[in-house]
Specification:
There is one protein chain. By secondary structure, this protein is mainly alpha-helical. It has one domain. About 65% of the residues lie in helices and about 0% in strands. The chain has seven helices and no strands. The radius of gyration is 17 Å and the shape is globular. The mean pLDDT is about 90.
Length: about 180
């Protein structure tokens, strides 16, 4: 899934969660924490695979549930106030949504070896390839997953607008007035 698809998928999940758990649409900094969580695994793994070849695969270290658990527990232990914990929860939901989003294609195609990253380094992952981000986007094709991500992005944007542009609206209200 591409970055905007991950962001939309995470937002849709968090929007449902916020309404169910908190009783209202997402608000404030939680939307930014969520956004960071939806991108976090790729912000770590892609540069460390594609750019400097430190990791074996573009889905390894931060795409692992082992790393997710450590990161989430450390963040939870570092926070003590409810507002801080809301941010950690939003980040964690975004993070997990990324892992689930990357699992859709291997599950649909029944290529379960493609899910090895979930428990890396306890399980193996394919060997990665070095390439630039520009090369990746220049060679992108309109596969069914790319189209799905595009549709998901549109749906996520519609829900975000319906929710009142949370995050952006909150920043505007805070700093423009």
């Amino acid at each position: 899934m591409l970055p905007w698809g991950h962001a939309a998928f995470g937002y849709l999940i968090y929007s449902v969660y916020a309404r169910w758990q908190i009783g209202h649409p997402p608000i404030g900094l939680a939307v930014f924490a969520l956004g960071l969580g939806t991108q976090f695994p790729d912000l770590i793994d892609k540069p460390l695979t594609w750019t400097i070849s430190l990791l074996p695969y573009g889905r390894s270290l931060s795409h692992s549930l082992v790393t997710f658990t450590v990161v989430a527990l450390v963040l939870w232990r570092l926070t003590q106030y409810p507002d801080q914990r809301t941010l950690v929860s939003a980040f964690a939901i975004g993070y997990v949504s990324h892992l689930v989003g990357d699992s859709i294609y291997p599950v649909l195609t029944q290529e379960y070896t493609g899910l090895g990253y979930w428990l890396w380094p306890l399980t193996s992952v394919p060997e990665g390839e070095s390439r630039s981000f520009i090369e990746f986007f220049l060679t992108l094709e309109a596969t069914p997953m790319v189209v799905f991500g595009g549709v998901l992005t549109v749906v996520g944007l519609v829900v975000w607008v319906y929710d009142g542009l949370p995050g952006i609206k909150d920043l505007y209200a805070e700093y423009v007035q």
